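re: that chain from earlier
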Amino acid sequence: MAGKAGQLNRRQFVAGAMAVPLLACDRGGTIADRAKPVHAPRVARQGDLVELIRLEPGIQLDIRYASTNNFTGQKLYDEPRAFLVRSAAEALVRAHRAAQRDGFGLTIFDAYRPWRVTKKLWDATPPGPKRNYVANPEKGSKHNRGCAVDLSLHRIDTGMLVEMPSGYDEFSERAHRDFMATSPEAAANRSRLERYMEAEGFRGISNEWWHFDYAGWENFPILDVAFSEIR
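^ sequence. v structure.
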């Protein structure tokens, strides 16, 4: 079914057809056996990854891949937790505190992502232009390095997410940063989030208003460590 403006969101695009690839991707050996990233995943050392709410309890979590409320319709994380490498985590906390001064806070959809989940997301997306929205596991993702975060803003007084031009993880032009056919409030909120994040060393990407990469991400290795193994 088409979404607004004749676009398909991710869940609509893969509904029904994607259940089989997600199950099939575990056959014939482990994920890592069949498609190694360029830099082999390694076990995280103590202190590599920091849990965001331990640094700043005021940050809200809405970890979509720990539920079925994501474009695959399947639960991919065992726990609704969010981690970044320490320097990125500390920068994110500073962005959150800047937002607080304006009556907003940060809500996290996704942060560090084990490489095996990137592989599942890739397998769940049919070949074609829609894969422009999904990281290729052969190269690894900045999420795999603990240096990328997907997020939005919430209002401190209500705890509710603010209006944005599109939903999270949407296959739509509305998700692009230069999409202007939106409400003034949504455009202002998008710019507001970008301002808070860029002031602390994060940079957005063109086709996802919610995604930000931390400067220096290339200095960190790709990881494939389950949340439960992070101490």
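Strands lie at 49-51, 60-61, 83-85, 104-110, 148-155, 202-205, 208-214.
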